[in-house]
Design brief:
About 65% of the residues lie in helices and about 0% in strands. A hairpin with a 4-residue loop joins strand 1 and strand 2. With about 450 residues, the chain is an all-alpha fold. The chain has a two-stranded antiparallel ribbon with strand order 1-2. The chain has 19 helices and 2 strands. The longest helix is centred in the C-terminal third of the chain and has 26 residues. This is PROTEIN NPGR2. InterPro entries: NPG1-like, TPR-like_helical_dom_sf.
Length: about 450
Amino acid sequence: MEGLSSGDQSRTVAGMALSSEPLATKDNSTGAYSSKNGALDQQPDTSNLEEAELSLRGRGSLNYEEARALLGRMEYQKGNVEAALHVFEGINIAAVTPRMKATLAKRREHHKRRSQSFSTPPMSIHAASLLMEAILLKAKSLQHLGRFREAAQSCKVIVDIVESSFSEGLPENFAADFKLQETLNKAVELLPELWKLADSPREAIMSYRRALLNQWNLDVETTARIQKDFAILLLYSGGEACPPNLRSQMDSSFVPKNNIEEAILLLMILLRKIILKRIERDPSILDHLSFALSVSGGLKALASQVEELLPGIINRNERYHILSLCYYGAGEELIALDLLRKLLHVNEDPNCVPALLMASKICGKTPKLAEEGINYARRALQSLENNCNQLESVAYCLLGVSLSAHSQVAVADSVRATKQFEALEALESAGRMTKDARL
């Protein structure tokens, strides 16, 4: 107790001990709460004594806020979320914020080696890091208790402090030996998620853009997760966000004008990172990009992205199928047919029903290709083997169309009549199956 001093506070440590006395009665050793999965982390942090030692070395004493930060962390690690929040709420954030900013600013000047001032910062960098972690744990505690807006506001304090202290962004390897960078990374990633939970999409979008446009020294995986989550929000949130204000971009640079364009830009960046093997392969990124480019009419752009993928990122048959869909949707039906022929080769996937149906549909539009369309439709029927009446109905319909088209180029009248009769039979079968499916 003698190592604890009140610092700038007039309150004594004895008073703090009294205020935190109920904490001992709320023991629930289930580990610290994790904001990512909503579960309690079973790995307790044993660095409390180390943090205290570092702060004592920096100042010779622990003040009231630092002591509360350590005590709150211990309660949080034991799973006593409400008790931890009670301790964290005793920290006067408004009072310590200016001192934290001043400490970080001194650190910035030291890093640049431009300042000749030897004045002592208001607190050590260890103390600032400890308090910043306490603010983050307070936000996580509020999140666990369902108080999402308060959690977001608490988390935003961390981002505001660092941003105001480093207007030009964090220098590389800043605070590499301390928890400051780790705490900042977690806060930057958590903040938009909290705004989403608080049903504040506008604030969430602003937080995502802030996370991606400012220099936070985030690692590649963290940045990729933020980019993906932001793209998903833009695609499926149902609301239209105002376009980003990218003043730093050059006039020739692309600036997205709406949600879809911004999501496409983010997903293309992620796809490029996968191609360059900077991040692990994530098949859902291509799925989201396919949806975004499809609804925006950018199917040729999607085809270009798929063609640039290195072998092994997606299966070769899947590659043929996606490209055929892209070119078919873009009106390049003959290119799509060539790709389908490759997919349906005997050495690839000759029984792929969706590819057989699409190839039959393309061929049925041209009398010269109608015979090939007939073959595809019959192969589709053989592959289905009465497993799906709806698809069989489609196959019979396409068979009838191809037979009818083929009859137009028949030389002999008998062949023409036969093909027309077979076409009518196939179309009648399709009609019966469609009627049966509706019953």
